[in-house]
Amino acid sequence: MSDIIQKLDAAAKRAPVVPVLVVESAASAAPLARALEEAGITIAEVTLRTADGLKVIEAMRKAAPGLIVGAGTVLSGRDVEAALNAGAEFLVSPGMSPGLRAALGGREHLMIPGVATASEAMTRMEEGFLRLKLFPASIAGGVPALKALAGPLPHLKFMPTGGITEGEVAAYLGQPNVFAVGGSWIASQADIAAGNWARIIETARRLLTPA
Ligand code: 3PG
Predict the structure, then answer these.
(1) pLDDT single digits (tens) 39-66
(2) Peptide bond into 136 cis (omega under 30)
(3) N or C: which end of the chain has fewer CB within 10 A?
(4) Does residue 185 lie in a domain region?
């Protein structure tokens, strides 16, 4: 088991909710990282969908060294290198492609690739990926799909993401093959842009406090 997987597993045990962040300006990065830490979040995924994405990763890591910061929406070999150079500790992709697979060459332990079917999960497992993202979770079958996959593929661990609502988080986290749940609504793009740290902290805390 690689260092980063162990680190992610331990952090997810403390706080199994991963905000998927779309951050327009690097100026938001430091206060956002501090707000997430204050709320008890341990893992954050910064999408590379904005021009400032890489700068955001760098600034969040500096501002909150205790937070594990990864890069999301990693689609190409160029994204892999840029994200790692910016300080991303792990990588998340919506799926897998031959080009991305080749670019990773030997660094599968750093990536949580998206899968939506048993065949994709088996292929990623054969390739050496240890943690998978069920994506888009709500369309790929949600909790019933995770329950069904646990039978034949009991050692695979998933981070379902995509279309999950706050009310569904507990049911996902109740599955033994789920190590974390991801969502962009935990810290929304609008709240980040507006600097609404209080609402982000409140939402994250509510999610991390079992009812
Ligand atoms: C994403 O890549 O945007 C994530 O899957 C987040 O999905 P969500 O916006 O439905 O939470």
Answers:
(1) 999 999 999 999 999 999 999 999 999 9
(2) yes
(3) C
(4) yes
